[in-house]
Amino acid sequence: MPQALTATAFMGLDSGLSRGMSPVRTVPAESAAVSASESPDRRRSAWMAAAQAGDRRAYEKLLADSVALIRTVARRQGVAPDHVDDVVQETLITVHRVRQTYDPTRSYDAWLGAIAARRAIDSLRSRGRRDSRELHDEFALDNHPDRDDASAATESEQRAQRLHEAIAELPPGQREAVEQLGLRERSLSEAAELTGRNSGALKVNLHRALKALRERFHGEP
Amino acid sequence: MENPDVTSDPRSHEALIDRLGTELVPVRRLLPPWLRTAGWLLLVAALAAGLLMHYGAEPMLRRWSATPDLAWAGMGAVITAISAAWAAFALAVPGRRVAWAWLPLPGALLWIGASGLGCLRTWIAPGTEVAGLHQTADCLTFIIAFSIPLSALLIVLLRRACPLRPVLAAVLIGLASAAASASLLEICHAFDSASTDLLTHALAVAVVVAVNAAMGGRLLGKA
């Protein structure tokens, strides 16, 4: 469970810290209006206790207050700036769903931190999966440039342009094979039916086309 | 999530917070982990009481006095069941220390260690009755038959909480319910521990832990 272990270090530290902060303390639901002299953690804890009892105002103040904390945790986990807000939203939704698990005698920040860290790891993992899947597919990479990054988009557009030019210059049989099998993602039998060529010839042409394209792009940056 | 223009806008957090605020209803706070553990153990105790009424405590005590290491193994299984369940309930609350996962270790060591000693019985005291293949199969059926409802109840209880590490939670559930059913088996075990017996226990525990862990991703996953 390597992913669990990465989360472990932070959460252990976090709850370890928070344990020292507030040992035992019961917060009645009515005390949502807390004096400013209290620590932020205790204030949030009181808000959550009130929210568990159904106090909407305390709940909204608490969630708004939590956004910055979640951002900090997400950044510490290594979430890219573009995706921090996704983690914030996912964490807020989780907080809403599991708010009955919060025990007001304990630190709110540690509770929130653990949830945020988990959602941050989920985000990193799902992006990791998506990236590794796309890297295997040159066409997908060209067709779906990273929308978050303008320079990356331009670069991949240029790359796609060069690739299209290179495909256009291929001999007709090879070009046909690349277009049908690669770009339009048709199956061998579909492509064979459409082009009137047998599937063996299509395969050979695709193979030659890819070889030619590789040779052409080899050495280019 | 696909559109970064929407999510990176701080106002969208406000919109979400507003929506969550309108959905807010009072919730009943979860009981502390030790109380929830006690609730689950109550069911195990009820099963034990049922089995004791049926079989009586006498054969178990007689077997234990004849082979003290079996008594230790039984004790270890009971401790493992309690501590693994407690650890699972504690870890299902966000912000609790992961070190809770080590809680069942001493009990499990006692359980496995003492049953391991039982293996040597075949050489130390060859006279004792050793489990045949048929009895071994019964053992396995018993453990798995009891583990499934015990695991199911643990899963239902843990889903009310928020197990942030579903696989770890599943392993603890498997360990707790397998240890609990092995403890129950002690009551109606007709023969002494032997290597086949230990192997059966190990296999049953592995099956329960593996099934729980495999299903854990979905059963406990999106908490």
UniProtKB/TrEMBL annotation, chain B:
<keyword id="KW-0472">Membrane</keyword>
<feature type="transmembrane region" description="Helical">
    <location>
        <begin position="140"/>
        <end position="158"/>
    </location>
</feature>
<dbReference type="Pfam" id="PF06532">
    <property type="entry name" value="NrsF"/>
</dbReference>
<feature type="transmembrane region" description="Helical">
    <location>
        <begin position="167"/>
        <end position="187"/>
    </location>
</feature>
<dbReference type="InterPro" id="IPR009495">
    <property type="entry name" value="NrsF"/>
</dbReference>
<feature type="transmembrane region" description="Helical">
    <location>
        <begin position="69"/>
        <end position="93"/>
    </location>
</feature>
<protein>
    <recommendedName>
        <fullName>DUF1109 domain-containing protein</fullName>
    </recommendedName>
</protein>
<keyword id="KW-1133">Transmembrane helix</keyword>
<feature type="transmembrane region" description="Helical">
    <location>
        <begin position="100"/>
        <end position="124"/>
    </location>
</feature>
<feature type="transmembrane region" description="Helical">
    <location>
        <begin position="38"/>
        <end position="57"/>
    </location>
</feature>
<feature type="transmembrane region" description="Helical">
    <location>
        <begin position="199"/>
        <end position="220"/>
    </location>
</feature>
<keyword id="KW-0812">Transmembrane</keyword>
